[in-house]
Amino acid sequence: GVRIGSAADGRGLSLDPAYSSLLGTEFNAMTTENAMKWRNLEPLPGVYAWPGADQLVEFAERHGQEVYGHTLVWHSDMPKWVSPEWPAERIRTELRDHVTEVVSRYRGRVWAWDVVNEVLDEDGSLRETLWLRKLGPGYIADAFRWAHAADPGARLFINDYGIEGRTRKADALLALVRDLRRDGVPVDGVGFQSHLAWDEPPRELTRNLRRFADVGVSVAITELDVRVELPVTPEKLKRQAAVYRQVLKSCLAVPGCVSFTVWGFTDSRSWIPGYHRGYGAACLFDADLTPKPAYLALVDEL
Ligand code: XIL
Questions:
Q1: What domains appear along the chain, each with residue ranges and CATH number?
Q2: Residues with CB under 6 A from ligand 1
Q3: ipTM of this model?
Q4: Helices 168-182 and 205-213: crossing angle, nearest 10°?
């Protein structure tokens, strides 16, 4: 019953038949890697550019995959026209309209949404963002309520990184989720991004997932990749495979874990080399789409 997904890239889909074929056959769920980020969806005020996201959703539907929507409210990848100079009421209206517009468009076609992404700082306090500065902490509850009103059937997630182990950030997120649910806010799940490294397996992942599930929310591995310090060696790929396997095992061990998603499946389209200097080879397939030890480890576990 656990969905096995990958983030997907529109360019890969249109340019590379081998990429599309693997994406369509190896996974039963898909997350839109960039296509549903605000900057890409609404490049000009009120002017939505749906084709990129539509193309991915239609691909998923043709291949019997469920779609995980990423992401409605984030501090990053905002269009420039949203101005920090606007008064709070204007910011609030724009945010509400954006959430409502996007969730309504894909109503019934997206099984889960990352409603808010990365709202916490490493120390567990709320991240200083435009939303927090202008709207106060209540923007989080509001976003969930707006999303729920637009599609009552969609499962609504709060997503973050650095919460896989029992970190301060994870403790704070657990407290936040508890508070939100106590207040009747429709938070259904917590997404663990899981951008990990080959030599640092997360500690106590299973126990950590379990304590979130124990407060009544689903949990999901939402953006797993395991970066390797270059150059790649067979030994490093073996350790990478062990980390992938460990994360899948933890998800399968926790009944509330409803989905397991990798952040892209091929090294040729991974975000890692561009964002983590000296690292790469983070995915299940190499750049030639040959399965790596990590892929074999997951198949073995399933
Ligand atoms: C990344 C994408 O993979 C890149 O293609 C893009 O250039 C930047 O964003 N956490 C998130 C994702 O929630 O949206 C990020 O995705 C990776 C980190």
A1: 3-301 (3.20.20.80)
A2: 33-34, 117, 193, 223, 271
A3: 0.99
A4: 10
